[in-house]
UniProtKB/TrEMBL annotation:
<keyword id="KW-0732">Signal</keyword>
<feature type="signal peptide">
    <location>
        <begin position="1"/>
        <end position="22"/>
    </location>
</feature>
<protein>
    <recommendedName>
        <fullName>LTXXQ motif family protein</fullName>
    </recommendedName>
</protein>
<feature type="compositionally biased region" description="Low complexity">
    <location>
        <begin position="125"/>
        <end position="146"/>
    </location>
</feature>
<feature type="region of interest" description="Disordered">
    <location>
        <begin position="119"/>
        <end position="146"/>
    </location>
</feature>
<keyword id="KW-0175">Coiled coil</keyword>
<feature type="coiled-coil region">
    <location>
        <begin position="51"/>
        <end position="78"/>
    </location>
</feature>
Length: 146
């Protein structure tokens, strides 16, 4: 049961933490979630507010992480400086930790908007999706082995 909740929550968090994709022609994730579990207009508004509130900081941190990753990659050379590599890696780890914490916080805030019934329905639908993905993977494996 905990695994289902983790997977369901992770999928919700991932889909909600990427509104930039929604702006690039992808379907509205909150609307999809609303359709899946029957969110009220007030719940949708509240979830959109949570995302809006946190997305600016998350976006900035993601950009910082990308820059730090480039800097770290730039240190990979024959005449490397171990202290610089460790320093860049530590900074990247700090930023990545902040991203993880904010993403988890956003996920928790969104989860708090759901009713118990909606959480249960989401868990059930996520389990169904997981089972469907497993069946598809098994079918592909069977086709590849033939």
């Amino acid at each position: 049961m905990k695994l289902k909740k983790i997977i369901g929550s992770a999928l919700v968090a991932i889909s909600l933490s990427m509104p930039a994709f929604a702006q690039q022609g992808q379907p509205d994730q909150v609307a999809q979630l609303a359709q899946m579990v029957g969110l009220s207009d007030d719940q949708q508004t509240e979830i959109r507010g949570i995302i809006s509130e946190m997305e600016g900081e998350l976006s900035e941190l993601r950009q910082d992480a990308q820059g730090l990753q480039r800097e770290l990659q730039g240190e990979i050379k024959a005449d490397y400086d171990e202290d610089n590599i460790r320093s860049h890696a530590e900074k990247l780890g700090d930023v990545t930790g902040k991203i993880a914490a904010l993403s988890a916080l956003m996920q928790a805030k969104v989860d708090a908007v759901f009713t118990k019934e909606q959480r249960e329905e989401l868990d059930q639908k996520m389990q169904q999706m997981q089972q469907q993905m497993q069946r598809q993977m098994q079918q592909r494996q069977m086709q590849q082995s033939q």
